[in-house]
Specification:
This protein is α+β, with helices and mostly antiparallel strands. The chain is built from nine helices and eleven strands. About 30% of the residues lie in helices and about 25% in strands.
């Protein structure tokens, strides 16, 4: 915030009456209702109103002149965040006392009274939060809490199938109104932690499933992880790396349906030496010669 004396164009030695006259002169010139659409005038009016409110408070003015507080009312050298100042100082249209001297001008006084009434009825500001959740909580839904800086907690219901970046709105859980209006809302942006083997594509879950050479060649039943638990998956005989098997209804949950899980097979050779396997492959003669790279030639 700028120096309030500078904003009103008065000297530091100005009397309360001189400050009031300077404020009235500028306010009548800059009031938003008299300058519709002029953002510069509106910003200047807010600055002038705040400066007048500040200097009209004898104790604040004394402490400011003594260097004990800055133009926001914060203790020196302590720093405060803008949101703290905004909450403490209120909106420049809220104070009707600052407009009492306009009573001589009936039209302008009515504008000010209307503005003050609107300010009293204004709802409180929305508060923004970011909530990081696990991958499976996003898929299946969950109950979470957000600890609030001032104490207490927000209870948040995570709907099944929520995605990265979606925003949940909790009605009436934001900041209270500065007047008589309703409280604002809490807006919660969701961040989803990656899973170590699941990924997501729309409502489908993707899984790379390692299998042995024998399971691929001969077929088998193996356990496969899904977001709702493990299931038995039948591996067809003669499967290869890249073969995709579909598990119906094992994907992302929705109110009326559930996606699928797509299991991509990945044939894995033993990492330790296997003399018998090596001997077998060395002597193995395929009945029908084949070239797995034929499509690349």
């Amino acid at each position: 915030m700028k120096d309030p004396y500078e904003t009103l164009g008065v000297a530091r030695t100005a009397s309360p009456d001189e400050i009031k006259k300077a404020y009235l002169r500028l306010a009548k010139k800059l009031h938003p209702d008299l300058n519709p659409g002029d953002k510069n005038a509106e910003e200047r009016f807010k600055e002038v109103s705040s400066a007048n409110d500040f200097l009209s408070d004898a104790e604040k003015r004394r402490r400011y002149d003594a260097g004990e507080i800055d133009a926001t009312g914060a203790e020196r050298p302590q720093h405060r965040y803008y949101r703290d100042y905004a909450a403490a100082s209120g909106h420049p249209y809220e104070s009707q006392a600052a407009y009492s001297d306009f009573s001589e001008d009936d039209i302008f006084a009515e504008l000010l009274r209307r503005r003050a009434q609107e300010s009293r009825r204004a709802r409180g500001p929305d508060l923004h939060y970011r909530l990081e959740i696990d991958f499976l909580d996003a898929v299946n839904g969950a109950q979470k809490e957000i600890a609030l800086p001032q104490g207490g907690a927000l209870h948040v219901t995570i709907p099944a199938g929520i995605e990265e970046g979606q925003i949940l709105r909790l009605r009436g859980k934001g900041a209270p109104s500065p007047g008589e209006g309703e409280a604002g809302d809490a807006l919660i942006e969701i961040a989803v932690r990656p899973h170590h083997f699941f990924s997501r594509e729309g409502d489908d879950i993707l899984l790379d499933l390692p299998i042995t050479i024998a399971e691929a060649a001969l077929g088998a039943e193996v356990k496969a992880a899904t977001p709702s638990g493990k299931v038995l998956l039948k591996i067809p005989k003669g499967s290869n790396t890249g073969t995709v098997l579909r598990l119906k209804g094992k994907g992302v949950a929705r109110k009326d349906r559930r996606g699928d899980e797509l299991v991509r097979l990945k044939v894995m050779a033993p990492t330790q030496p296997e003399p018998e396997l090596e001997a077998f492959l060395s002597s193995w003669k395929p009945a029908s010669p084949y070239n797995p790279r034929q499509d690349m030639e």
